């Protein structure tokens, strides 16, 4: 209760006691207490619909990874390495989730510096608020709207998990299992967490209570957020970040034995198709869930995820038909992933027309990434992590700056969080926003690249990166895990 109002109530009650009977005094106190309560700001209460949607979205992202990504990757490797890639995806995802709840969430999503957070939520401390006897709340993108922080933390845990799991496709079929896990710990800590903090951490809309505090609140946000970069669901944090780590790994681990001389064709395009389909289905939670509310922006992200992915399937297949004379199932599945990657940063930031253009361009860009660019780079990126996630992630991040423009059907961005005022078409500069997007992309590439080189080198010095030649020829299923995917 406001102290000034309470003092006024007591004064009025005293006056009433002198002039009237005790009943009148009680009435006076009650009236002023009522006024004070009405004047106090209401504490936001999570909406059950928003909370339910975020829990469903979290489940969908898990579906993307296990089994979606695992089966997509699994079908692409040779049969002797099928179980090893399934094991790597599941274990890396699980490891990242555990680390997330120990210290990852705190370093990514609490106030610290512009590069990394603090330890306020170490071991998820403070998620349960003893003072109020309820769970702490997390901000969304609307003033006065919150969700339980424990739900937000779980949702973001799945992002950390799938990002780390994406990397394993680049060095599939030849890296030690123990080396994969140790690398994950180092890279998660020093690349994923800082980039996530720089891109996504801010003080929330309710912190911008007036124009006077705007600069102060913005100064507490992550560096890339301060720049004004737009990344709705992880173009930089997830795809570019992981792709660079994968490319560095492909160079440092080295090429597979027989690469370029022996057939290394996918052993089961059926499973790859199943995996791609699960990725597409789960990606609706990934993108639409990033609205953090069950609202129109979630709906926009949902339909853009559908439209862009379908467009990318068509354009990749068309490109293959023009280039090779035939469209392949592998191409269609890869096109779906390319579209999903490219629309990720743009999902809630562009109109449907922009999403279709991004999808169409990403199909062609991904096709070039796994053919032309791969040859130029000369790396054995086994499952084309950089060719798809890197190339299409960069494309999507840059085109977000173009199609976010209200003049091109985009929603624009909030120009003033103290009043939640959106930028107008007249004030939107495509060139300026694309430059901001480019800076975010370049910083992510540099950060992940440097951390990855150091991480792989540390792992190599401690336990070695690569299995023996004999183990690689036998297959990692038997040599690393003592089992096989299929009866021989």
From TrEMBL:
SUPFAM superfamilies listed in its UniProt record: Ammonium transporter
The UniProt record lists the keyword Nucleotidyltransferase: no
Family, per entry: Belongs to the ammonia transporter channel (TC 1.A.11.2) family.
The name this protein goes by in its record: Ammonium transporter
Originating organism: Malikia granosa
UniProt membrane topology term: Multi-pass membrane protein
Residue ranges annotated for the Ammonium transporter AmtB-like domain, each copy included: 52-486
Pfam families attached to this UniProt entry: Ammonium_transp
Localization terms from the record: Cell membrane; Membrane
One Gene Ontology cellular component annotation held by this UniProt entry: plasma membrane
GO molecular function, one term: ammonium channel activity
